[in-house]
Amino acid sequence: MSEIQASSYDTVQCQTLRIPDTSKPRVVIIGGGFAGVHIARGLAKSPVQVVMIDRYNYHTFQPLLYQVATSGLEPDSIAAPLRKMLESQSNFHFRMATVTQIDTEEQRIIASIGSLRYDYLVLANGSKTNFYGNESIRQKSFPLKQLPQALDLRHHILSSLEQAILSSSIEEQDRLMSFVVVGGGPTGVEVAGALGELKLHVLPKDYPELDLRRMRIHLVEGTDSLLNGMSAASGEEAVKYLERFSVQVWLNTLVSDYNDDVVYLNNGTTIDAHTLIWGAGVMGNLIEGLNPASIFRNNRVKIDAYGKVEGYDNIFAAGDIAALVTEEYPQGHPMVAPVAIQQGQLLAKNLKKIVENKQELGAFVYKDKGSMATVGRNRAVVDLTDKIHFKGVFAWFVWLFVHLMAIVGFRSKLVVLTNWIWNYLTYDRAARLIIRPFVDVKNERRAEE
Amino acid sequence: MSEIQASSYDTVQCQTLRIPDTSKPRVVIIGGGFAGVHIARGLAKSPVQVVMIDRYNYHTFQPLLYQVATSGLEPDSIAAPLRKMLESQSNFHFRMATVTQIDTEEQRIIASIGSLRYDYLVLANGSKTNFYGNESIRQKSFPLKQLPQALDLRHHILSSLEQAILSSSIEEQDRLMSFVVVGGGPTGVEVAGALGELKLHVLPKDYPELDLRRMRIHLVEGTDSLLNGMSAASGEEAVKYLERFSVQVWLNTLVSDYNDDVVYLNNGTTIDAHTLIWGAGVMGNLIEGLNPASIFRNNRVKIDAYGKVEGYDNIFAAGDIAALVTEEYPQGHPMVAPVAIQQGQLLAKNLKKIVENKQELGAFVYKDKGSMATVGRNRAVVDLTDKIHFKGVFAWFVWLFVHLMAIVGFRSKLVVLTNWIWNYLTYDRAARLIIRPFVDVKNERRAEE
């Protein structure tokens, strides 16, 4: 049996990436995020071979990364193995690799583990943190886009407190207990809120020898409001909520540099802080090889309403990497999960029609189901439409319910629910583990961007 | 408040490790394992200051490490933050550090973060993996004593399969799918059984392109039976159970070397294997500075029946590091959790009496409550006494129940139970995550021993 298996593989020189050779057209999907998974699923019954390539062997539920970073959840709650998610789909093949280049002439992608020919290529490889060219910030701050980064941040937060308790210098203690969060979007607001909860409820019990009232949390936002993209009322409410956790909110302020544990703001202020959490922006995770004319601003690729990348007939894109410019969205659609899911679902349908030579592809229209953010226990803001928005305990329950339902898999839902109920009742955070204390994550960075 | 706090610290030069200075005698406990935690708890109401030092900020429930290594559980299920475990105890202080030396003349310990004077010193720092001097095995095999090691092994097992699916060489695939477990104690038996379950139930669904029947699991044991320390019947049953998972059991066999993915056995056989799991022995985690006359074989320290280290009046030991030689146990007691717990509980009582100048210390008598091991679903062996032993489904339930009850904390119990029920019903293992795919754990080892 094994020999038959082996010989059925296409092992020509330019194709060291072994995939069974079939007569069906091959759809290569780069990325197993919200867009990629929905495209693959949508192609389950299509006469195509689906190959997904991702750097990680799991799908990450990014909206809850901040809870991993603040010791509330463990990785298995928000990460689902991609092979498991799609194992019932017989035309699906997964390969763990980083794609480094697209060769549009030869119709192949080049990855760390070899190259692979495609009939149709789908870019669903999302976005990465934008450090706006500041190398020092890139090296010393903590972004929060990937699971290893969340674990690095958890490690660093807890290690900083262990260091603080050893210090006899008040100044050094203050620096170690100072946290600057950059970016007033949902990630920044939620991580600042979670730090506020740690400060109020969890850490004082762990560190009776430290005066946790001296712990400082700053949230720095460049525009004049938090949660841009949500209603003004929600943004204002978020400021109020955060201030109750004694988070200091800096609006209309930019971080210009970060060196030797000093954060430089563009208003001339400096903040001593051992921890800088960077949630100030993302950009498309662009892969080399596309025609520059197909690239939109912010490293995204231009797509038409059907998901096709401008200038190519067999390259498509969906999710954060894709920019569909419409009258309503002149900058492309927001880089959020619902857009990725809806674009992925539509693109799967369109690809099926293309392969089957059917006409009338579907055009993308974003159904905005509203947005929400939470700021610690019992506090959230929800915008359902332009006019309907609410806040407080009920909004918080809505936030919990919507996120719980969106988590992949019944087991993960149960584990997350158990942890949430526990955390709520006991004011505890169970996963405050410094798994690898011998590693200095700030200077010996583990995760790639 | 902060100034008062700071000035109350004893900051003499030789004591950079800041601990509040009190008039009470200071008990320094090295290690937060089963022994250390029970000693600290037992001293809750004693007129002493308790300082615990551990390299990790968590207590590890070692009996379930193998389930983390085989993707069944996440770390938070079996690791409990030490500060949390002892937070209600006002005389307790924790410092995360590695102790490098004991200075018995000056009565202080020297750690990575400074030194600290003690009135009473308790060695509860357990054991570490014994590689019997083989440097190549030390560098390339996977021990299973600490949580980071379990995560390294999980990463390596899953990465090996991702590599195998990329290979077009049958030989290379076989090498990548070959696992050699060394040591027929509970750890070796349980990890081999768990690998057998992965092979039978989990991996074929994940890797339909691989012929998992070619995955090979070997268990190598130096003596003529498995589970030494348990009854002969249980050892024989374990062999039968493992063989049903097509685990090849090698008795009376030693591993003599490991190089370039080749395992050399002392009977002249070689096994190609990308993964060597080393559970062949442990030795005391000895710290420099004790009088050589106080050292027993296998790097343990000699203690008397009251827990005192031979040759010292104010140094004590409990758990794996301590060897109490009796007629029944001429090699010292077995290095297992129940001994550590019982010795810890007794030592706390004795220390309290010593501090209060009471007479009649308690002498240690080990109450052996039996032992057990599991080999995959529905299969376990339990020895209650020399004469009462049972096996099969009921034994398996007993194993599950005893381990579930022993896990620290109600939340962890719930999460473990949820995962166990899920794993049982679905034949799934949820945590098969290669969190940091860019790290080659085999050649870039993360965990310290």
Tally of separate domains of chain A:
2
Give the overall average pLDDT of chain A: 92
- Structural class, from secondary structure content of chain A? alpha/beta
Helix content of chain A: 25-40%
| Strands side by side in the biggest sheet of chain A | 5-2-1-9-21
Main sheet characteristics of chain A: 5 strands, parallel
General description of the model:
Two copies of one chain form a homodimer. The two termini of chain A are 41 Å apart. In chain A, helix 2 (34-42) packs parallel to helix 11 (337-355). Chain A has helices spanning 2-7, 34-42, 65-69, 75-78, 82-85, 135-140, 147-166, 170-176, 186-206, 232-244, 337-355, 392-406, 410-426; strands spanning 26-30, 49-54, 58-60, 79-81, 92-96, 99-103, 108-111, 114-117, 120-123, 127-129, 142-143, 178-182, 216-220, 247-250, 255-259, 262-265, 270-272, 275-278, 282-284, 301-302, 315-317, 322-323, 371-374, 380-383, 389-391. The radius of gyration of chain A is 23 Å and the shape is globular. Chain A folds into two domains: 2-55 and 97-129 and 283-355, FAD/NAD(P)-binding domain (3-Layer(bba) Sandwich), CATH 3.50.50; 135-280 and 377-426, FAD/NAD(P)-binding domain, CATH 3.50.50. In chain A, helix 9 (186-206) links the parallel strand 12 and strand 13 (216-220). The first copy, chain A, is an alpha/beta fold and 449 residues long. Chains A and B meet through helix 1, helix 4, strand 5, helix 7 and helix 13 of A and helix 1, strand 5, helix 7 and helix 13 of B.
